[in-house]
Design a protein that fits this description.
BCCT_transptr; transport; cell membrane; transmembrane helix; transmembrane; 21 helices
Length: about 550
């Protein structure tokens, strides 16, 4: 099967954790809760500072001379059209999350804002502002760091698409041993539990939607298990067809349906207020971005909102960055660094701003008209019912609810599909075209993990486990940023000398050529080793 030691170590760790959750679920929740609380209390500043650094890194890459460097050969064209590429970014990064939290988070923040008086206009503005803070520039900046590092070393210098390979300029030959394996296992570990958590959350939301739409279907653990099994067949089938078929077509379909749902709510809701909210939320976001970025509530002593929302999200995005970064690296060949960073950060940010301006405003407005009944329902029945309870009040509710369930299922499939692909890639030495057999194995493992934890009641413990795993991976992401800058600096000097050679006399060229060869040799020494055998890659330009 051409798997590496990373495959076996990751499976062993996942199996041990699952067994722990099956036989000692209360102990899992207790132990992980203590560790998670310790990290949030004592290292929250580290998460906040690191995420800020990732945003600054992304901004630097856009405006630096490195932005002209292409992720591939100098004359290579992008493999996918802009729309297909953006569809990949959106569905892999947070599509299912936006559907899940689009109504829930602004509504919850409206009733429990970080600073304003609950239930006021100020609370509504603050709720949308912080929703955008959690889903805006910061998550996509960390994805850009990981994705850029992997794409740069893979497509420009033919290195394996692995975290360890991208750290070679800093760690050298140590990436080939235990240290490199530990980095890759950590990336696989975060991906396994991140995707399994999404499977559990997605199953709970789909069953909630089915119980709202059809009488006789109960929102219980058995229904959730059936949903997981059905979705498993779907995403394993999609993964088996490869990136250019299953994942690609589903991603495009997801974006089209999501846009349709958004436009429907915009037209049937308070359209003018939503447009004004878009402008106000954008202004509040950028005006208060420095304060939100560095605010640790040091002098107020109230850290509930910070711990429950901001630090949770920062750890969540870092934990997810291994999966999302690897996937967007795989589909970004042929883009320049500037194009890559702008596309990865700005387009999803703008879409998220529009999404929350429409669904968030509509949810808060409906809750106010119902005297808080929508929020009370969410509190009593869970976050997964928010979207369906919200849509029940709109025209053509049965049809809209059915389409929404399909949208969630489709996002569900693409997230799991992308995760299966990335896991197979990371456990086969960075092969960007892993075998179908490996992808099916990982699909079964992901579903088994989700099912076991659903039946053992360990979904909350699983979330905490992923957040804890995100803490050491933060150091990996920081090193990836340093590695990229170090390598690009060396390569940029070489490219500059090559251009200058054309402008000088022959006697200078001999000396410059010698110096250039020395720099090239030094640069090659810090690069990761190439794959032992060339891979068969799809170079067809996808412009449909």
């Amino acid at each position: 099967m051409n798997v590496t030691i990373v495959f076996w170590i990751a499976i062993a760790i996942a199996a041990l954790f699952i067994l722990w959750g099956v036989f000692l679920p209360e102990n899992v929740e207790s132990v992980l809760g203590v560790i998670d609380g310790f990290i949030s209390t004592n290292f929250g500043w580290f998460y906040m500072l690191s995420m800020t650094g990732f945003v600054l890194f992304a901004i630097f890459m856009v405006f630096s001379p490195f932005g002209k460097v292409k992720l591939g050969k100098p004359d290579e064209k992008p493999q996918y059209s802009y729309f297909t590429w953006f569809s990949f970014l959106f569905t892999a990064g947070m599509g299912v999350g936006l559907v899940f939290f689009g109504v829930t988070e602004p509504l919850t923040d409206f009733h429990s804002p970080p600073k304003a008086e609950p239930g006021t206009n100020e609370a509504a503005a603050e709720a949308l502002q912080y929703s955008m803070f959690h889903w805006g520039l910061h998550p996509w900046a960390v994805y850009a760091v990981v994705g850029l590092a992997l794409a740069y070393f893979k497509f420009r210098h033919q290195a394996p698409l692995l975290m360890s390979s991208a750290l070679s300029p800093i760690l050298g030959d140590r990436t080939k041993g235990a240290l490199g394996h530990a980095v890759d296992v950590l990336a696989v570990f975060g991906t396994i539990f991140g995707i399994a958590t999404s499977l559990g959350l997605g199953a709970s939301q789909i069953t909630a939607g089915l119980s709202f739409s059809f009488e006789g279907i109960e929102n219980n653990i058995l229904t959730q298990a059936i949903v997981v099994l059905i979705i498993t067949v779907a995403f394993v089938t999609s993964a088996a067809t490869g990136v250019n078929k299953g994942i690609r077509y589903l991603s495009i379909t997801n974006v089209i349906i999501a846009l349709g749902l958004m436009v429907f709510i915009l037209i049937t809701g308070s359209t003018l207020q939503m447009f004004e909210s878009f402008m106000s939320t954008a202004g509040n976001y950028f005006q208060n971005l420095p304060t939100m970025t560095f605010d640790m509530n040091t002098f107020t002593g109230d850290r509930d909102f910070l711990n429950d929302w901001t630090l949770f999200y920062w750890a969540w995005w870092i934990g997810w960055s291994a999966f999302v970064g690897s996937f967007i690296a795989r589909v970004s060949r042929g883009r320049t660094i500037r194009e890559f960073v702008i596309g990865v950060v700005s387009v999803p940010f703008i879409f998220s701003l529009i999404w929350f301006s429409i669904l968030g405003v509509a949810g808060i407005e409906l809750d106010q008209s119902l005297n808080g009944a929508l929020y009370d329902l969410v509190v009593s029945q869970g976050d997964e019912v928010a979207l369906f309870a919200f849509l029940e009040n709109y025209p053509f509710a049965p049809v809209v609810l059915g389409i929404t369930i399909l949208l969630i299922a489709s996002f569900f499939v693409t997230s799991a599909d992308g995760g299966t692909f990335v896991l197979a890639m990371m456990s086969t030495g960075g092969n960007i075209n892993p075998s179908v057999r490996i992808k099916i194995i990982w699909g079964v493992i992901l579903s088994a993990t989700a099912l076991v934890l659903l039946f053992s009641g360990g979904l909350e413990a699983l979330e905490m486990a992923m957040l804890i795993a995100a803490f050491p991976f933060t150091f990996v992401v920081i090193l990836l940023a340093v590695s990229v800058i170090k390598s690009l600096s060396n390569e940029y000097d070489i490219l500059t000398m090559e251009r200058k050679q054309l402008e000088h006399e022959p006697e200078y060229l001999e000396q410059a050529q010698k110096e250039l060869e020395e720099k090239r040799e030094e640069f090659q020494e810090i690069l990761p080793d190439e794959m032992p055998e060339p891979e068969e890659e799809d170079h067809q330009d996808q412009k449909e």
